Amino acid sequence: MDAISFARGNPTPEILPVAELADCARAVVERDGSVILNYGAGGGYAPLREWIASRHGVSPAQVIVTPSSLLAFRFVMRQLVGDGACVAVEAPSYDRTILVLRELGARVVGVPMDDDGIELDRVEELLAGDDPPRALYTIPTFQNPSGRTLSLERRRGLVELARTHGLLLFEDDPYGLVRFEGEPLPSLYELADGDGVVYASSFSKTVAPGLRVGYVVVPAELAAPVEKIANATYISPPLLPQAAIRELIRRGGFEPNLERARELLRLRRDAMVGALAAEMPVGSSWNRPQGGYFLWLDFPVGVLTDDVFDRAAEAGVAFVKGSDFFPGPGGESSARLAFSFPSVDEIHEGVRRLATVVRTTVPLTT
Ligand SMILES: Cc1ncc(COP(=O)(O)O)c(C=O)c1O
Q1: Could you list the pLDDT tens digit for every one of the 366 residues in the chain?
Q2: Which of 22, 121, 250, 265 is most buried, with most CB under 10 Å away?
Q3: Residue 205 covered by a domain
Q4: Which of 205, 223, 204 is nearest to 213 (CA)?
Q5: 205 Cα to the center of ligand 1, angstroms
Q6: pTM of the full structure
Q7: In a domain, 194, yes or no
């Protein structure tokens, strides 16, 4: 078997609704080509904005649809975060957003997490400090990279804390709908009634990442400035992919496709958790997320990821080092494993290869 990647958060190709999207794309060009093949509004394709707005109970002007939710994050943060502003993120957090914040000149501070998500007393400590964060970036559900989900109690606590201290919450939620089991939790946006929360999501995990369609729901006062940044950046986003998604929704294809994606991912999560239990040496630990793309693996005490990484690559298995997701120190003995892309057989074989490498890594004894 060739090299196996647990590194990339890509969907397995089976997940992509190729034939349906081909149909939808042809239909929308034929029906609405004179609109979607032209320049449009900076905030995106109006019928999709309207659908998203109705799901979130806001005005369509508050929805900015972008070619990537990461770009939406950049636009909002550009508007809100000046040079040197402090922005808090979970530690660990999505590495690309940390990079964007640094590029924008923000000072990024990490807040520790446990199995229930970000630790609220640590957020409180930061807020009481000399340079309190202006905003907190959080991925509360099936987090990238850890797979963790913020508990309901902490969701309520975080919203309350943010309200008391005037802390803006940026809730990034591309995985919330990719739930295999368990009860869905309310978003921070819902708990706060939209007050002081920016909500971002994406069709990358629910339909297809290659369409490059993400979005952000912003408070009314941010809608015009953020749309202006989008317009100044690319005039208007590509409308064809947005119209194709709207057509998939109109035909009733969104939910069944999501259900299919969830099942394919659940099989992979189960295969990975089962293989880890069967293969990993004593002292290793990992979680079992109820959805999403990733889980978090801690190697036995004393085993450093740096000592595993290259040997794992030589053995034909790739992952991302835990430390890549921390804005400061952390994750030196951990790995992010994506179960979204490989087949079930590849997952078994990849975990077997990784476990062999870990078993033969000499732990630090000091
Ligand atoms: C937490 C998080 N936010 C944003 C994104 C980017 O999504 P998009 O494909 O919309 O750029 C990802 C992609 O993996 C992600 O994990």
Answers
A1: 799 999 999 999 999 999 999 999 999 999 999 999 999 999 999 999 999 999 999 999 999 999 999 999 999 999 888 778 999 999 999 999 999 999 999 999 999 999 999 999 999 999 999 999 999 999 999 999 999 999 999 999 999 999 999 999 999 999 999 999 999 999 999 999 999 999 999 999 999 999 999 999 999 999 999 999 999 999 999 999 999 999 999 999 999 999 999 999 999 999 999 999 999 999 999 999 999 999 999 999 999 999 999 999 999 999 999 999 999 999 999 999 999 999 999 999 999 999 999 999 878 765
A2: 265
A3: yes
A4: 204
A5: 8
A6: 0.97
A7: yes
Ligand 1 atom closest to 214 (CA): 10
294 lines ligand 1 (CB under 6 A): no
**Number of domains present in the structure of the chain:** 2
Q: What is the DSSP string of 195-224?
A: TTEEEEEESTTTT-GGG--EEEE--HHHHH
Domain of 232 in residue numbering reads as 18-250
Which amino acid, one-letter code, is at 14?
Answer: E
Strands 320-321 and 317-318: what pairing? unpaired
Whether 364 is covered by a domain: the verdict is no
Whether residue 189 sits in one domain with residue 41: yes
**Strand 168-172 vs strand 197-202: parallel, antiparallel, or unpaired?**
parallel
